[in-house]
Design goal:
Length: 646
């Protein structure tokens, strides 16, 4: 993987390594504590981290009690900060460490932010808890309202002090809050994020009681989602005083609502967790999220931005899991739950369209392929839910020049098993007549040869729907729309499209979910065989053995790659970065040249086929990505792809 990074990584992708650390600490044993803090810093440097966040008051330990009012503790704490500054000279890492600070005869619980031997700023804790097991107001003053201040220490003057600080190294903008700050109704990090901070650190001392870890985990993850930021959380460990409380050393790293890393709590050794943050992705999400931008207009604080510059951002340990199938949850239990939810969304959406139109019939073309199978399963669930007899579902199989026995038999068997009104209309004769009408030689197997069949099938579906008062249900999926792999005004068209925002990689799992959870054994076996059939439009004649000769993925490329490209492209990722991510995710599956070739094809087809998406029928959005011109995605049909290929 090191060779891969050295070959492909570009610092302009704006990744950064960060760490959360829990050092061994003894109560009031500052020398012991600083020794272990240094060890954790070195552990973080070994992981190529540019930021490490330590627990609250870790220089002294959090549970000093009235010792915080002792002059020796306070003096020794500042001396330890000086020692730490000296240790960090020449080290390319931002360190957030907790210590008490005496300022104007008030004691503050602070985060000292240090880089390359200098204190860049000191952030006081805004909210001081004084309820249940916490009595911090006995020692500390609120930092809320401390803004635009500076402080002099014996070894450094004019240090920015306040809750109004953001620490910036170009695109990387760091801000910090302390423990309780995250638990209040409007955390300081909310305002800091609205002011530009994209990486938030929390220095914490959160004790353990039953179920608190789950609440804390959800709290931190939720704040990272609301703030569209990365949130690094570090809490005090088990060597704090246990007179009344026990701390677990909980470490969390989240990114925009996703948990990237979490440690095993209750460890009795120096511990760090490390992850890679995609700041470019966070900033793109903020650019797209208009509500975030609007909310920032009402931010009540004036920020001081403290600038510094990391020495080297190209030396990174890429510790980020890149999901090969971003539309499909990797964990089986989550995947099952997701499929169930999507299936319910599809059927509920179709039910609304049927009740609105007052129609009691649906018409769908069944090919024996995955997409039409999923559409039929959605229709069946909808009709069962609305208590409409399945015989009102008109399923039409329309064999043509490329139809194989396998897909034909699967289509017939599935419709019979589900109890629909099955009809067969062979389109060969009609297509040959049409070839004659337009002067096309049927021996020429070009785009006209293929599209005549698709449009003939659509004409049949539409006319039968008109004749019998039904709704034509579209079967095409999101991946086909992205690539334009459909015939304009052929399978491209319907009266309502239930699969329009389902990517091909997810279609398989939805059909499998139904096979395993929603149907009888006979139907399940048919669905499994459909799942095992190669994806094909079956518009070209079969081979000499009667097998499929036209396999879609041989022509346009693997759908798992195209779905990966689509996901990241719609998120605003540059083609160069998409190529890096794809090479990283699929490095054991495809050659670099293969990935690049299919990415080039994806970009060309995505741009040139927009005219089809500009005229698609209605259909429900089920995930984060939709290509509906009425909803998520608006792009001119004649935009150039040159810039993106260059």
């Amino acid at each position: 993987m090191t060779n891969f990074l050295s070959k492909h990584f570009n610092s302009s992708y704006e990744f950064i390594n960060v760490s959360a650390a829990c050092p061994l600490t003894n109560v009031a044993d500052i020398e012991f504590n600083i020794k272990n803090i240094k060890k954790c810093i070195q552990m973080s440097l070994d992981k190529k981290s540019k930021l490490v966040v330590f627990p609250e008051l870790c220089i002294t330990s959090y549970t000093c009690g009235d010792l915080f009012l002792n002059t020796e503790i306070l003096k020794s704490s500042i001396s330890a900060i000086k020692d730490l500054c000296n240790y960090l000279v020449g080290k390319d890492i931002l360190v957030a460490v907790g210590a008490p600070l005496n300022y104007n005869n008030s004691l503050y619980n602070c985060a000292f932010i240090i880089y390359d031997g200098n204190i860049l700023g000191i952030v006081p804790k805004s909210y001081i808890p004084n309820y249940t097991e916490f009595y911090e107001k006995r020692w500390f003053s609120e930092g809320l309202g401390v803004v635009n201040k500076t402080i002099n220490l014996e070894f450094q003057d004019n240090i920015p002090f306040g809750t109004d600080l953001i620490f910036s190294s170009k695109i990387f903008k760091f801000a910090f809050e302390i423990c309780e700050d995250a638990w209040v109704t409007i955390p300081p990090s909310s305002y800091l994020a609205l002011s530009g901070a994209n990486i938030i650190g929390n220095l914490s001392a959160s004790n353990e009681i039953v179920s608190k870890a789950n609440y804390r985990r959800n709290l931190v993850n939720s704040q990272s989602a609301k703030c569209l930021c990365s949130y690094i959380y570090s809490s005090s460990g088990v060597l704090e005083s246990s007179s009344d409380l026990l701390f677990s050393g909980h470490l969390l790293i989240c990114e925009n609502g996703s948990m990237l890393k979490e440690n095993n709590r209750f460890q009795r050794e120096n511990q760090i967790i490390n992850s890679t943050i995609d700041v470019d992705k966070l900033n793109r999400e903020r650019l797209k999220n208009i509500s975030f931008r609007d909310n920032s207009k009402f931010c009540p604080i004036q920020i001081r931005e403290i600038n510094f510059t990391f020495k080297d951002l190209s030396n990174i340990e890429f510790d980020k899991y890149i999901e090969k199938h971003p539309f499909v949850p990797s964990k089986e239990n989550m995947r099952k739950e997701r499929c169930k939810e999507i299936f319910n969304i599809q059927s509920a959406a179709l039910a609304k369209r049927l009740t609105h139109t007052g129609l009691k019939k649906a018409v769908v073309g069944i090919s024996g392929g995955l997409d039409s199978t999923l559409a039929l399963l959605v229709i069946i669930k909808t009709f069962d839910m609305l208590k409409i007899h399945r015989k009102n579902i008109t399923t039409i199989t329309m064999p043509g020049f490329g139809t194989t026995d396998r897909t034909y038999n699967n289509a017939i068997d599935l419709c019979k098993s589900c109890g629909t009104d099955l009809r067969e209309i062979n389109i060969v004769k009609s297509c040959l007549q049409h070839f004659q009408d337009i002067g096309h030689d049927p021996k020429i197997h070009d785009v006209t040869y293929e599209n005549v069949q698709a449009r003939e099938r659509t004409q049949i579906l539409m006319d039968i729907a008109n004749k019998e008062g039904g709704l034509v249900i579209g079967t095409g999926d999101l991946s086909e729309l992205a690539l334009g792999w459909c015939t304009y005004n052929g399978d491209h068209m319907s009266m309502y499209s239930v699969n329009c925002s389902i990517p091909k990689t997810l279609v398989r799992y939805l059909v499998r979910y139904v096979a395993e959870n929603e149907v009888d054994k006979i139907t399940s076996n048919i669905l499994i065989d459909i799942l095992n059939t190669p994806v094909s439009p079956e518009l070209l004649p079969t081979d000499t053995k009667g097998n499929i000769s036209q396999k879609t993925e041989d022509i346009v490329g693997p759908y798992e790659l195209h779905d990966f490209f689509l996901y990241h492209f719609i998120k605003g990722t540059s083609p160069e970065k998409i190529l890096f991510l794809a090479n990283y995710a699929f490095n054991k599956d495809y050659e670099e040249s293969t990935i690049k070739n299919w990415l080039n094809l994806f970009i060309k087809r995505f741009f040139t086929q927009q005219f089809k998406r500009s005229a698609i029928p209605d259909g429900p959005k089920v995930g984060t990505i939709s290509l509906s011109p009425r909803g998520d995605f608006k792009m001119p049909s004649d935009a150039s792809f040159k810039l993106f290929l260059d």
